[in-house]
């Protein structure tokens, strides 16, 4: 499987200028190719293939209007064409019903605050003996190495985020030698807002609420931004302050997800969670809290770490009545209001904690044999499990690019 390892870059002045030029060239090539493809579509002509677009790019570099494209690595430009081809494939697959809804490719703006370029192995980039990242026509960039790469990277993506920070994202091929020692414990997880996660063994993980805790600072920074004149230097400085404040929140949330998912993967052989309708919940009055929790990111981490380290990860259907069924006797007595946190089973008389009971039922629905408060959960018919590849998605869907950092 493939994983991405991200590291902070610290380019100097000339290198930042060279990266800005590379970002701009990649954007122009993408937009030119998209313009050609859209013209062909409107004229009723056949779809322009990536090979034809590559030939047109080579010819354009010889013209006075596009001669400056030769000042950057040609690999960057070819990868930009590949990104467009992938965007069209995703769009066509969505039209055929092979994937979730996705719109057609859109033109990139020079005002986009996030930029990215990608170098493949044939670009000639390398990590020098001085532990710097050498990029063609850019130079040797200082890197903050937080860990050692387990193998030779296949590609590297250089990213500039909205906060003005630079990152290098390496694609690493990992093998089965990283499988952890098998353990006997299995666990079900009930995700929520009051507690971020309630485990079937009775443990409850508090929700950090990173966004809520930073709201006062974010409000102050956003108010300052709104008072700056459009297109002014001060407005750009204020925008960066807002972006950095949001970046700190996102980084803290991601670190929390990594630490918790790592702990659960190490302690349990099998993990089950409920497949929540996050998009639907994000359209309710709880939208801010749902986004602040970041359930999708957390479950994605569990999925790829389980695949990487030889654990079992199971998602159960979102329509399983986990909050309506007694985990002790299996009796179902209907839905309950959200303010009901504990209830007594009418059949067996067991006093049940709503969240722990739901976590135990999640484990039961996934076919896991877990123990809750000393009572053995009875097995139930096992639904078909959904396959989990455990790899990061390629340039987005979501992440337009995926720049997740594997911390396990």
Protein architecture, described:
- Residues 371-408 have low confidence and may be disordered.
- With 408 residues, this protein is α+β, with helices and mostly antiparallel strands.
- It is elongated and about 85 Å long.
- Helix 2 (50-60) packs antiparallel against helix 3 and helix 5 (215-226) runs antiparallel to helix 6 (233-267).
- The chain contains ten helices and 16 strands.
- The protein has a seven-stranded antiparallel beta sheet.
- The chain has helices spanning 13-42, 50-60, 74-95, 210-213, 215-226, 233-267, 278-281, 287-293, 295-308, 354-365; strands at 2-10, 115-120, 126-127, 133-135, 139-144, 155-160, 166-173, 186-191, 195-199, 204-206, 270-274, 312-316, 342-344, 351-353, 371-372, 375-376.
Main features:
18% strand; alpha+beta; single chain; 10 helices; elongated; seven-stranded antiparallel sheet
Radius of gyration computed on alpha carbons: 25 Å
Number of strands: 16
Mean pLDDT: 85
Percent of sequence in beta strands:
15-25%
From N to C, what is the helix and strand string? EHHHEEEEEEEEEHHHEHHHEEEHEE
Principal-axes geometry comes out as: elongated
SS-derived structural category: alpha+beta
**Largest β-sheet summary:** 7 strands, antiparallel
The termini sit apart by: 14 Å
Please tally the helical runs, counting DSSP H or I stretches of 4 or more residues: 10
